[in-house]
Amino acid sequence: MIVALAGGVGGARLANGLAGVLQPGELLVAVNVGDDFEHLGLTICPDIDTVTYTLAGLNDRERGWGVKEESWAFMDTLRKLGGPDWFALGDRDLAKHVLRTDRLRRGDTLTAITQDIARACGIVQTIVPVSDDPVRSIVETDEGALPFQDYFVRRRCEPVFRGIRYEGAETARPAPALLAALDDPALEAIVICPSNPVLSIGPLLAVPGIADALRRRRAPCIAVSPFIGGEAVKGPAAKIMRELGIAPGAAALAKPYAGIVDAILCDYDDPGAGTTMDGIRLIAADTLMRDDIGQRRLARVALALAAMLRKPA
Ligand code: FO1
Predict the structure, then answer these.
(1) Between the N and C ends of the chain, which has fewer C-beta atoms within 10 Å?
(2) 3-class SS at 166?
(3) Residue 313: pLDDT above 70?
């Protein structure tokens, strides 16, 4: 049993690599819900959707989100009618948002909905939200507080990032399936995927019980740094870290991951490579996933490292 903690696009790629090298049912991916929001009366769960589409092979690679071969009739009409068009909802994507919103209104859990959608997409691994309760990332900027998607999409991350708070985290409960997997005697490794530590992994660790469960972990936990050459592979992680006055590199993960992670895989040029920080070994590897083969290669490196840490030297 392998548990992966994933956020946005980088997280989905390594989750896909893990799915590609494990047997059906061997992987549980717990996904960040901090990016979720209500839009046009629909509950949108971008990170869950990115992981689901990626594991189903339905993801649009150049856009990084949404479905491939998408059409935009809904958005064209919405725009003509004067509706908000800053957040693009493709016609195929829309069916899932409508279905999910309807089921949530009927009282179904986000876990049940997510698992049914994954199964309908032919996915043989388990995908769950980190919590069935709402957690909403609110970004503090020089222009005031912005809900995550307003900051990330509508404002294209231009405001100066001052901080983030995870609204609802204090009362959110970890998804039961995630806690069960972390307590499973068959658990062999936990992998924190290369997602933004502040935007994607932060809201995940902020759910009470998750960090404690990881501190009590019965298997090694390996994190993969999302930074390569002092930059984020995708997204605003490096800009955000600079605005927080933190150098974008594996060392930036050591503090938030202390006690939770046994080792961090980082790229060869990372200044922290080969050192130990806060009890965490920073180990150099080729962490850039260029394609599906690269995703599986990095997944194997992470699992091999966990196996080494599991067996007494
Ligand atoms: N990102 C954008 O930059 N522009 C969009 O219009 C947009 C729409 C969208 C719709 C559904 C969805 O699941 C994701 C979408 N994203 C869009 C990406 C989304 O903001 C990010 O995937 C995450 O929130 C950050 O990891």
Answers:
(1) C
(2) strand
(3) no
216 assigned to some structural domain: yes
User: Which helix (H) or strand (E) covers residue 84, if one does?
Assistant: none
- Domain residues for the domain of 207 are 2-136+174-309
Q: Which pTM does this prediction carry?
A: 0.96
Q: Is 49 in the pocket of ligand 1 (CB under 6 A)?
A: yes
Any domain includes 150: no
Going by alpha carbons, the residue nearest to atom 14 of ligand 1 is: 46
C-alpha to C-alpha distance for 111 and 168, rounded to whole angstroms: 17
Of 31, 40, 65, best ligand 1 pocket probe by most atoms within 8 Å of the beta carbon: 65
Domain count, the chain: 1
Any ligand 1 atom below 6 A from CB of 36: no
pLDDT in tens, 129-176: 999 999 999 999 999 999 999 999 999 999 999 999 999 999 999 999
> Residue 46 belongs to a domain with what CATH number?
3.40.50.10680
Q: How far apart are CA 216 and CA 190, in angstroms?
A: 12
Q: Which pLDDT belongs to residue 81?
A: 98
Q: In the predicted model, is pLDDT for residue 293 greater than 90? A: yes
- Condensed to tens digits (0 to 9), the pLDDT of residues 65-74 reads 999 999 999 9
Within a domain: residue 91?
yes
Quote the radius of gyration of the chain (alpha carbons, Å): 19
CA of 236 to the centre of ligand 1 (A): 13
